[in-house]
Amino acid sequence: MSKLWKDIAESIKGTEHDFTKGKISRAVLLLSIPMVLEMAMESIFALTDIFFVSRLGEESVAAVGLTESLMTFVYAIGAGLSLATTGLVARRIGEKDSGKASIVGAQAIIISICISLLLAIPGIFSGSDILKLMGSERSVIEIGYGYTSIMLTFNGIILLLFVNNAIFRSTGDAAISMRVLWFANIMNIILDPCFIFGLGPFPELGVTGAAVATTIGRGMAVIYQFYLLNKGTKRIQLKLIHIIPRPNVMLKLLRLSTGGIGQNIIATASWVALYRIVSEFGKEAVAGYTIAIRIIVFALLPSWGMSNAAATLVGQNLGAKQPERAERSVIITGFVNFVFMTTISIILITFPDFFIKLFGQSKDVELIGIASLRIISYGFMFYAIGMVISQAFNGAGDTFTPTILNLICFWIIEIPLAYFLSISAGFRESGIFWAIVISESMLTILGIIVFKKGKWKLRKV
């Protein structure tokens, strides 16, 4: 037991362990713990905002929910870029070439900045129009357009946060990524009530204040990331020479990112479509669904942390020409994730009302939120395995396979099924929730079938 606690302490402190050697179970532990804590910190961003905004009323909650459904496109791009960065940097680290790993990281940062400038345009000029296109009621648009504009305009902070943390994780320095998000969350938790309610010398900005607080918190975290990258670790250090554009590296990153962005946009666009279907049942349905999804995100992001550990282990071990060790890493990580998510699902299925009522909404909103949380939680055991397998493909540099699987399960199965069950079959909101469970479970089953064929082991990047 003392050895276990020693390993846990080492994982949180940060380790220089070579993940291409030694016991795989220990490698999974050392990487997973800080990655799980990192993702828990990321999920706290979402819960902090919705916790304070819920005190402002249903319109404010709906505005945050609809904006966040749009921001999932930004997150999708950030996730796609981070997947490509993880795959390439982890390979170079596995090959013991820290210089090339630094070049990849720098080129990923340049690409992120260029993309963010393009994405900022709609936020600057058309925040209210975007909410209108989402089917928002006039009261929601009047209250929430400022939140929407700020979040979209400063999207670059989110992209850089994603990519920079991917650089740290893929080198094995997961503890650094964890500490970055700890810092960002502390800032957000302090600033959120200040800007929302106008505490002390701060202006009272309402729901717009949540966007201001989150942007400042994340922005300071990005500054901290750049300081750490410039300072350097034993595995990677970004210098001015690495920032010189390298077209061949950029093209490789963009090629891999296309698959990563594609799979995430397909997945997140389906969430936007689901929000559009939910909005057919009124603002109470949107508010209840938003609160439930925030809680689910909180529960799932630690699981994504374990999945990210699998991606790093796959990338580094394939770089070290150890495909069987890479496969074994996926199996062990998948089992751990399965046990973790099964435990979480039991809690949420048994006590959904406890969590939903923390947000103090009307009875109608609470009932919809409880139903959403309970039904979607039935699929957590499938989600756990599916996440690990998808990230294993990405870690191997095979971003195409998860893209196709997402297209089949989310657009061919989930959206039509959600519309049919909720509207045509008359199950209303519950039909949407069951469609999520069914499509995500199918994604896992198909992923296992493809994973067993083993073609991902032969991928060269």
Description:
There is one protein chain. With 461 residues, this protein is mainly α. The protein has one domain (24-456). The protein has 18 helices and no strands. The protein has helices spanning 2-13, 24-53, 58-94, 98-125, 127-133, 138-153, 155-171, 174-197, 207-231, 240-243, 247-278, 283-319, 323-350, 352-356, 363-377, 380-395, 400-424, 429-453. α7 runs antiparallel to α8 (174-197). The chain is globular, with a radius of gyration of 21 Å. The chain starts with a helix and ends in an 8-residue tail after the last helix.
Blueprint (SSEs and pairs):
Elements: H1 2-13, H2 24-53, H3 58-94, H4 98-125, H5 127-133, H6 138-153, H7 155-171, H8 174-197, H9 207-231, H10 240-243, H11 247-278, H12 283-319, H13 323-350, H14 352-356, H15 363-377, H16 380-395, H17 400-424, H18 429-453
Helix pairs in contact: 1-2, 2-8, 2-9, 2-12, 3-4, 3-6, 3-7, 3-11, 3-12, 4-6, 4-7, 4-11, 5-6, 6-9, 7-8, 7-9, 8-9, 11-17, 12-13, 12-15, 12-16, 13-15, 13-16, 15-18, 16-18, 17-18
Task: Provide a compact summary of the structure.
With 461 residues, the chain is mainly α. The protein contains 18 helices and no strands.
Kindly report how far apart the N and C termini lie.
Answer: 40 Å
Question: Biggest sheet: strands, sense, closure?
Answer: none
Which residues sit in consecutive blocks of at least 5 with pLDDT less than 50? none
User: What order do the SSEs take from the amino end to the carboxyl end, as H and E?
Assistant: HHHHHHHHHHHHHHHHHH
> How large is the radius of gyration?
21 Å
Number of helices: 18
How many beta-strand segments? 0
Question: Assembly state here?
Answer: single chain
Helix share, percent:
over 70%
Mean of residue pLDDT values? 85
- Tell me the overall shape: globular
Tally of distinct domains: 1
